[in-house]
Amino acid sequence: xxxxxxxxxxxxxxxxxxxxxxxxxxxxxxxxxxxxxxxxxxxxxxxxxxxxxxxxxxxxxxxxxxxxxxxxxxxxxxxxxxxxxxxxxxxxxxxxxxxxxxxxxxxxxxxxxxxxxxxxxxxxxxxxxxxxxxxxxxxxxxxxxxxxxxxxxxxxxxxxxxxxxxxxxxxxxxxxxxxxxxxxxxxxxxxxxxxxxxxxxxxxxxxxxxxxxxxxxxxxxxxxxxxxxxxxxxxxxxxxxxxxxxxxxxxxxxxxxxxxxxxxxxxxxxxxxxxxxxxxxxxxxxxxxxxxxxxxxxxxxxxxxxxxxxxxxxxxxxxxxxxxxxxxxxxxxxxxxxxxxxxxxx
Length: 346
Hints:
It is built from 15 helices and no strands. It is mostly helical. It has 2 domains: about 90 residues, Receptor-associated Protein (Up-down Bundle); about 160 residues, Up-down Bundle (Receptor-associated Protein). The radius of gyration is 27 Å and the shape is globular. The N and C termini lie far apart (about 65 Å).
């Protein structure tokens, strides 16, 4: 689960270099010899060396990439094979570079938006730890008072607190990694998330943008239509569209048009289907998907802004919940002191 994978930035740079080299007519052996020589970190160097050696022995690039397991994303491997089969490898690498550039831009925008709320969250967690520790230091070993009501005071309390927070952090990292690797097969959870107002529509819009782009790319390479549609649908990583792969493939096998197969599912928006219908009727489906991809990329920017806003609100809500919890705990502590004082007076 924690095996090395190419980062988006590395994929972007690789695709740009490969597109330039292939278009310049440099042979694949020379390309990968140079790539292996210039590779940086160990995992990248090992995979590049594997590809270099395989290509030098006469293997196709697609087979060499497939031998690297999941180091490269599935879309990359599939499109390399398509590029080789159709003789458009340079063009494929160029379009993949554009795709990863868009992903990288959106990811950086998301990180920029979430950085300040995360700093405040970390600060609040550190302040709580400081309060736990300082109360024990000031009061001494025998007079320490648990003003937070957590049963944690002084050095020992701080140690327990750090262990708990670290455990939660490790658990969160583990969960994120499981989701990224597709190891969490919880379709019911994914479907539930898509029904959340604000969050669900934004995720669907991002998935449709990937689908339109993938259709434009795969249908423009001479790939078998059924394979192209399956690959494009899988590229969305959205359960709503992944569920339709078999039904769409069956409809195509029975003679339905692409538009009819997609429309029968009832899950694609009308504007998406209209563009597909017009493109198929006029014989310009590739161009229609290209135009639709541009439109949905613009919508994807708005969807990403929505996701960033929701993520920021989620962090703010967590901070507010922490603050409110400890205000209540301090209030009860103060009331308890007053009650004990009152009982002593009377």
